[in-house]
Amino acid sequence: MSVFIVESKIPVINDAMMSLIPRHRQYVEKLFNEGILKMYAVSEDRTRWWCAIKAETEIEVMDILSQMPIIDFLKPEIHNLMFFDEAIRELPGYSLN
Q1: 96: helix, strand or coil
Q2: How many other C-beta atoms lie within 10 A of the C-beta of residue 31?
Q3: Measured distance CA(3)–CA(22) in Å, rounded
Q4: Sheet holding 77-80, edge to edge
Q5: Continuous segment of H or E residues that includes residue 37
Q6: pLDDT of 2-52, one tens digit each?
Q7: pTM score, two decimals?
Q8: Whole-angstrom distance, CA of residue 56 vs CA of residue 63
Q9: DSSP for residue 87
C-alpha cells in the first residue's frame, strides 16, 4: 500500500462551494476513521490544499477524490511518495487516582 500526496490551489470560495463544505468535512472525517486519509491541510490564506491518501494505485486515489463534495472546485495533482513517516497519536492512559 502506498501513500499519495494530493495538492491543489483553492479558488476564491463562493456560496456554492461554501454550501458543500459541511458534507466535505463529513467525508474527510469518514476517510480518517477508515485509515484512508493520513493528513489533511489548508494554507492559512485558504489558497492551497494538501492531503495524504493511503491507496494501492493512483486510480484508487482519483476514485476517492471524485467522491469529495468540493472536488469540482479543485484541480488536484497526485504524487506517489517513496515513504511517509508519521507520529503515532496515542491516547493517554487512564488513572484511577
Answers
A1: coil
A2: 19
A3: 26
A4: 37-42, 48-55, 2-9, 77-80
A5: strand 37-42
A6: 999 999 999 999 999 999 999 999 999 999 999 999 999 999 999 999 999
A7: 0.83
A8: 12
A9: P
